[in-house]
Every structure is written in structure tokens, then in C-alpha cells.
Design goal:
A: 55 residues, mainly alpha, 0% strand, B: 243 residues, globular
Chain lengths: 55, 243
């Protein structure tokens, strides 16, 4: 079961990165900053990838 | 009419996974024979086919498009960042490259300790777990934009090519440039995930400055960003090793 879940969702680090991105998007959209989110989110995603790669 | 922007990532994702699944089935076939190993693989494919039909049916019915986009976006992002990060780490030399010959040897060692049922289960579980990521991509792309034919065609074409090549060379498919494919697919899938997730939360394609064309920009951004990260990490690890 753990192999199944890990294949679907990845490890805790991956889930944490995506959860942070999701939270940031919700916050930006909630504050009417959806247009800024289109530029900020990809940078945040790339930062997450950098962090995951270095672990 | 096939949508090639869906066929290509589905094909490449599936190719990487099917190569890994083939290595496991090949190793198992040396223990319990081709028929039994192929039977285990077929059972796993049947399970994946049922899962694809069931999830496609359930998710396609009555679920608000925005929620569907958000859910698909989250899953694609989970998948994409994982693949891209892994490819960057391997490209920068921080992690060892995936080695099909080593995978084959490890599976053979595992099989030496088990009986027929255990061997059959290793083949079944191996194909099922590798196929889960293919299932995820086929369902995600299939549901979004109703591109079932394109996503399924990509995955099945990859399966046929891997099986045909494997049957011809009868050895682990070591020469497949796995990390390059993972990097390219990771960039594409991360772009789709980012695009659909914000579209789902923000309420439509209007949130993206160039509409659907933003997808291309995102994929290029992640590919170039990934290459830059790779170069930066390689440089740092070299400096660290010298010091």
C-alpha cells in the first residue's frame, strides 16, 4: 500500500512542495492577484524543484 | 483526430515506465518462464485498464469542470515536479542514473529467495506500479479536453514499441535515454499541472496572459530553468569536491 501511495503522490517532500504551491495560489487568487500568480507560481514551482533535487 | 500535444507526453511517459516494467518481467521470466511472467503482466494490464475505465467514468460524471481541472492539475504537478527534480539531480551528478542492468540484477537476486507465487507477484506488482504513472497521465489528459483517444494511443504505442524491441533484443533496454526523456516529460507535465491548477483555482484560462499558448511558455521556462539548475548544481558539487 505504501508503494502504491508513493507512486501516486510521491514522498512527503513532493507533497509538501505542491501543498505550498497550492496554498500560495489560493492566497493570491483570494487577494485578486490571479494575474500576478501566473508569473509568481512558475518561479515558486522551479524553486520547489531545486529544493527537491538537492535533497 | 489525434491531439499531438497529448500523444507526445503520454507516449514518452509511458515509454519510460514500460521499459522499467519490461526489465522486471524479463527477470521474472527467467525464473518462472515466459508464459507465467507474461500472464502476470497481462493481469496487471487488465487491472490498469479497469482502473482507467472506472476512474474515467466516475470523474467524468457530474464533477464541476473547475474541480476536475484542479484535481488533475495537482496530480500532474505532483508527478511532474518529482520527475523534473529527479532528472535535474541525476543530470547534475547528485544522484546515480537509473541503470536497467542493475535493476535486472536486483530483481534476479530478489527472485532467488522466493518461490513461484512470490516471483509471479513481483512481475504483477512491478507492472502495476510502473503502470500506475501511465494510468495517471492517461486519465489526466483523457479527462481534460476529452482527449481519451490521444492519451490512450500514446500509452499503447509506447507499450507496443517497448514489447517489440524487448522481444527482438531479449535483454534489459539499457540504451533508452531515460534521464533525457524524464527531463523532457517532467517539463511538459509540470507545465500542464501548473496551467490547469491555477486555471481551476482562478476560474478559467483568462488567468494566463497568453491563454493556451502560455502552456508552451511554461514548458520552455521549466526546461530552461531545469537546465540552469543542473548546471548550477553541477558547478557547486564540483567546487565542493575540489575544496
Amino acid at each position: 500500500m505504501s508503494a502504491f501511495l508513493k507512486t501516486l503522490f510521491g514522498d512527503a517532500g513532493t507533497v509538501a512542495v505542491v501543498a505550498i504551491i497550492l496554498a500560495a495560489e489560493l492566497l493570491l487568487v483570494d487577494y485578486d492577484q490571479a494575474a500576478s500568480a501566473a508569473f509568481a507560481v512558475p518561479i515558486l514551482v522551479l524553486a520547489g524543484i531545486a529544493w527537491l533535487a538537492r535533497r | 483526430m489525434l491531439d499531438w500535444t497529448i500523444v507526445v507526453p503520454a507516449f514518452l511517459t509511458a515509454a519510460v515506465e514500460w521499459v522499467e516494467a519490461f526489465t522486471i518481467v524479463l527477470a521474472v521470466s527467467l525464473s518462472i518462464g515466459w508464459r507465467a511472467a507474461a500472464g502476470a503482466a497481462l493481469a496487471a494490464f487488465a487491472t490498469l485498464a479497469v482502473m482507467t475505465a472506472a476512474t474515467g467514468g466516475v470523474l467524468g460524471l457530474g464533477l464541476d469542470v473547475r474541480w476536475l481541472q484542479l484535481a488533475i492539475g495537482v496530480f500532474l504537478l505532483l508527478f511532474g515536479v518529482r520527475w523534473l527534480a529527479k532528472a535535474v539531480a541525476r543530470g547534475a551528478g547528485l544522484k546515480a542514473l537509473h541503470d536497467e542492468a542493475q535493476e535486472f540484477a536486483d530483481t534476479r537476486a530478489k527472485l532467488a529467495r522466493g518461490d513461484w507465487t512470490a516471483s509471479w507477484l513481483i512481475a504483477f506488482k512491478g507492472v502495476l506500479l510502473e503502470g500506475l504513472e501511465v494510468w495517471l497521465i492517461v486519465v489526466a489528459f483523457g479527462l481534460h479536453g476529452r482527449a481519451w483517444a490521444s492519451s490512450t494511443t500514446g500509452a499503447l504505442a509506447a507499450l507496443l514499441i517497448v514489447i517489440a524491441t524487448g522481444l527482438v533484443i531479449r535483454a534489459p533496454l539499457q540504451r533508452v535515454p531515460e534521464n533525457t526523456i524524464k527531463f523532457a516529460v517532467g517539463s511538459m507535465i509540470t507545465a500542464f499541472g501548473t496551467f490547469w491548477m491555477l486555471e481551476g483555482i482562478g476560474g478559467g484560462a483568462a488567468v494566463w496572459p497568453w491563454g493556451d499558448w502560455s502552456l508552451l511558455g511554461l514548458a520552455a521556462f521549466y526546461a530552461l530553468g531545469g537546465l540552469a539548475l543542473m548546471a548550477l548544481m553541477r558547478k557547486r558539487s564540483t567546487v565542493g569536491a575540489v575544496q
